[in-house]
Model the fold of this input.
Amino acid sequence: MKFGNKIIFIIAVILLVSKSAVLKAQDLSAFEIIENATIGLTVAPFAKAGQCLVDIDNNGYVDIYTLKYNGGDYSRIYLNDGTKFTDITNQTPLESIEDIEGIRTFTPVFADFDNDGDKDLSFGTNQNLHLLRNDNNVFTEVSEEMGFVGHKPSGFITTWYYNVGGWADYDMDGDLDCVVFQVNNDNLYLFRNDGDHFTDVAAEAGLEGTELSDETFSNPLVWDDLDNDGDPDLHGRYNILFNEGGVFRDVSDSIGLGNLTTMIYREFFDYDNDGDLDFFKVPGAPEEEPTNELWENRDGLFVNVSQETGMIMRDAYRGLSVGDFENDGDQDVFLHNSSDVSYDVLLLNEELEDGTRAFADVAEWVGITKIGDRKGGGFFDYDKDGFLDIYIPSVDHNHILYHNMAINEANWVGFILEGTLSNRDAVGSAVMLYYARGKQYRYTHAGNGWLRQDNPWVHFGIGYETSIDSVVIRWPLGYKQTLTDVEINQYHNVKEPDLSSVKSFTTSNSKPTLFQLEQNYPNPFNPTTRIDFSLKITANVELTIFDINGNEIRNLINTTAKVGNHSAVWDGRDNAGDLVTSGIYFYRLKVNNFVHTKKLTFLK
Done:
């Protein structure tokens, strides 16, 4: 089959009928199937249902973890050296944990919880939680000593599966915390990372009795910055929880996403490239009416746009991943059908000439043709050529690796982020790319939901544009870094600037359009931290520091300030000039009727 123009013509005809518009499109790429043995993906004889696609050893190539979901044997870890994969599972305790009758494994997530440069492994089973510390690719169980443990719910309970919901720095203290969902337990676990130990702070964070649980085990939570305020929020199977100073509030109804039904997978991503996160959900089982849905974020209110974008489908899927596989600048959606005899679905996201968007399934046309058992696939760039490949674990095929052949030769750029003051993995970074066609937005994760962790690097396709204007990175602790003169068609290793390299805050020539309070930087801090804010009008400004009990500690600013960008520095001292104790504090900006509060941490 000849790919490219023929495919575009077919898709254009489909969309022309339904939208009375034509595509602003380019030739598609296509996939070839890689034989497992040729690249070192050895036989893993167990029921598979999930993966982690992440650079475990930080060598610059994405590795593969394949999940043992059921039956005997144990999960596998394959390190990628750029030419082949090597099984290092014998350097882990996975066999002693999983190769036991009746043990089922759920929702693995790799994250560098101790900020030492190695990705550690967390996962749950139907009996226990596990945290394996990675020291130079040798994994050691540290769950008990680190306090990363769960408890069997009270009463006559026969199942209490643990699902690691993902890692994020929810309290913005520079290290990663973890949320865990447990079947038959309405109270989540929120493990705050205190450096040498984890403490369950779910109660004080407002996560007790949140009614997130149900009778299935497919309801882990995921971290995303849904309101774009700089701190990570939580979303579960049917709940959206905003993080407000470390305390979570259910906002599902108020943002238009209440009463969602029949959902196993969901993803927040910017499908229309307007700079905010939209919502896509996948059902857990086929129903009489289609239940796959796309909801567009319109200034914080989500509106169902499934019908007009072609996202309505009836199948139940066992895999979801989002990425720009043909590098045209729009994020596409990959879904696969488990043991069904049908082909998988690869939904091409295209902007039409009239400015609207539509999705069309191009899987068969681009070489996605495997059927049989397949669960938990995802996008990743295993050969680091800038074109996203697809991996799917399978019983029938062992491993399915679709290599993207990059036949359309579209341009791209990627970023591998490393935190310094923020968490080492830079989880929770927001990246905005600006170029001739507009902008694109990405948010970084450690864990994407039920049985998957995929596409670990920040990747942008830019079509046939030959340059980009700039890239703005908002690091997890709030510092904004702008990159210019960025070379395309390569990955860039970007390290968060340390305090000595942070430039002074300067006034922009353009007026701010909103009152805005930035996250202090650095955070945590000692001896000083900077707080930036912007004003759209000249007004009286109060900037005040409070302790956790609400007592005023320091009044930094109380004066009239002009339109523009402003900055204040706190040296950790109170109004009397005494150094405060280590701990969490709040800073509040008050401008007329506008009040905004954020949290900071002082460490002696």
Observations:
- Confidence is low (pLDDT under 50) at residues 1-25, 499-513.
- The radius of gyration is 24 Å.
- The chain has four helices and 43 strands.
- The helical segments are 5-19, 94-98, 143-146, 306-309.
